[in-house]
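Contributing new records

If you add data, match the layout below exactly. Sequence lines come first and carry their own label; structure lines follow with theirs. Keep one chain per record. Anything else will be rejected by the validation script.
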Amino acid sequence: MTDHLLIEQSDRVLTLSMHRPDKKNALTRAMYSAMAEAINAAQCDDSIRAVIIQGSNSCFTSGNDVADFISVPPSGPDSPVYHFLKAICHAQKPLIAAVNGPAVGVGTTLLLHCDLVYVGEKARLKMPFVNLGLCPEAGSSFLLPRLLGHLRAAELLLLGEEVSGARAAEIGLANKALTDGDAVHQAARQAALKLAALPPNSVRLSKQLIKEGVTRQAELVMEREGEYFAELLAGPEAREALTAFMEKRPAVFI
């Protein structure tokens, strides 16, 4: 384990498990860096043919560690979070997510870059960026309307509505919703093993064709989101929202 990240490789599958149970797998800069490095390294490793990203049976991730986030805000293209987002955006090998419990903020937007997503029926997906005085990230303002249509994307991104795992599978945010955490991880593992047994060049090129025209646009949008995000993060609305969150009180916007 390194930086609250369990890294395991077997049967040509790399599994990255977020492991910070005392903080509901809240993501730190170190965790972002470790995941980015592992995913990037996997692209050049012929012994790896698929990558699984998962949390525990009770929690995927509660999103950014707010204290870490406030003390050292993301600094654009050189920030660990941006390195991670670029890694999942440009990954040539299949990315598979296994999601149980909360998947907040980037915990949901990262799923838009995965090729297969399996969720627990009671998983809770939420992107409360506007609620925190911020804006969407990870290219989600482009990818989500493309996937779900404008109206449903607006529910999730403007209102910050939470959806269950069952609902996520129903509207197309996930491939399948399963009854419990073990079943979710098993489904992701079985899918990864199936992919690992297929001709690797065929898989790689097929993924490239599926995402061709999307990846570049997503990266351009991600860059623009990052500029707005940094601007908003330095502003009074985000400061009030994040302070209220830390103090466990309602935010007041004047």
